[in-house]
TrEMBL record:
Pfam families, per the entry: GAF
Protein name: GAF domain-containing protein
Coiled-coil parts of chain: none
InterPro entries according to UniProt: GAF, GAF-like_dom_sf
SUPFAM superfamilies in alphabetical order: GAF domain-like
Organism: Aphanomyces astaci (Crayfish plague agent)
Chain segments annotated as transmembrane: none
Organism lineage: Eukaryota, Sar, Stramenopiles, Oomycota, Saprolegniomycetes
Domain GAF intervals: 71-217
Length: 310
């Protein structure tokens, strides 16, 4: 201050960065209280206006990209990539609700949690998924629902968090999108919430279209298989060939590694299958006790069992 012929009334000091974000220097603005000006205020307004314009340009680019892309998965990836540019945050995750299950699937994340499952009963994502509530917290330790399980899995450190629901056009919650920690360490703002809601809306449309597309494909496959099975039953009476046909088409429809089809023998209390797919084309009969394994549980109780950890 000794180098100035006045005591500054207002000071603004900002970093000068290159295109890669490296700080090259700083610039300082100072105001003399005896000759007040609005330069600092005008500079702030100019910066805010430039930021808003940049965000609008990003959204317009996203809209153009979505319009020409027919692959829903690719569209969703573009939407999530744009969210980093809009919010300038460290991490963005998309947690998709699984119908009939109590878990959320991590469909998008830039860390090791991608492709994993988390409980819908835990954490802030677990709060937003069933309720549709928007959560903004700039101190996660103060939020009663925050859970550090994902941080412990990945070694990340979540300090600030913004989480909004992803809905289809009818308002049904399909997923949750969550942004973590602004790159510049600033707080999440009302504007950030608005832009993340836009991302969530675009993601909801993409997911909805993807679900509809999958439903159409599955319905067509089921119709084709039903026609083939009906035709086979009308013109053949070989149970072994029929079971082989069911197993082949079942594996294709479910897109799985293996597909089993077991029949119940109530007299012997066994599950059995005879297949023509043995070596050299001979018939192979397999039998097991009806009370054994998951198949036995389903056969004796009539319950459906679905587990990711057999």
């Amino acid at each position: 201050m000794d180098d100035f012929d006045f005591v500054p009334h207002s000071v603004l000091c900002m970093p000068i960065r290159n295109a890669h974000g490296t700080i090259l220097g700083t610039y300082d603005l100072m105001e003399n209280p005896e000759t007040p000006t609005d330069c600092i205020w005008n500079l702030r307004l100019s910066k805010e206006r430039q930021t808003a314009q940049t965000r609008i340009e990003i959204l317009l680019r996203l809209n153009r990209s979505i319009a020409v892309e027919s692959n829903s998965a690719a569209v969703l990836e573009k939407i999530m990539d744009v969210s980093y540019e809009l919010l300038r945050c460290e991490r963005v995750s998309l947690f998709v609700k699984i119908q009939g299950e109590s878990d959320l699937f991590v469909a998008h994340a830039n860390d090791a949690t991608r492709g994993q499952y988390i409980s819908i009963d835990k954490g802030i994502a677990g709060l937003v998924a069933p309720t549709g509530q928007v959560v903004t917290t700039n101190n996660v330790d103060e939020h009663p629902c925050f859970d550090r399980e994902l941080d412990e899995r990945t070694g990340n450190s979540t300090k600030k968090l913004l989480c909004v629901p992803v809905k289809d056009p009818d308002g049904t919650i399909l997923a949750v999108v969550q942004a973590v920690n602004k790159v510049d360490k600033s707080d999440f703002s009302v504007e950030d919430t608005l832009f993340l809601n836009y991302i969530a809306e675009a993601a909801g449309i993409s997911l909805h279209k993807s679900y509809l597309h999958n439903e159409v494909i599955i319905a067509k496959r089921l119709t084709d298989v039903r026609l083939k099975l009906s035709d086979y039953v009308l013109n053949h009476n070989d149970i072994h060939s029929l079971t082989d046909l069911i197993m082949v088409h079942g594996k294709a429809i479910m897109d799985c590694d293996r597909f089993g089809f077991l029949l119940v023998d109530h007299l012997k209390n066994e599950l059995w299958i005879t297949s023509n797919n043995g070596n050299l084309g001979e018939q192979v009969t397999l039998r097991q006790p009806i009370y054994k394994g998951i198949s036995g549980l389903v056969a004796t109780t009539g319950e459906t069992v679905c587990t990711r950890d057999a």
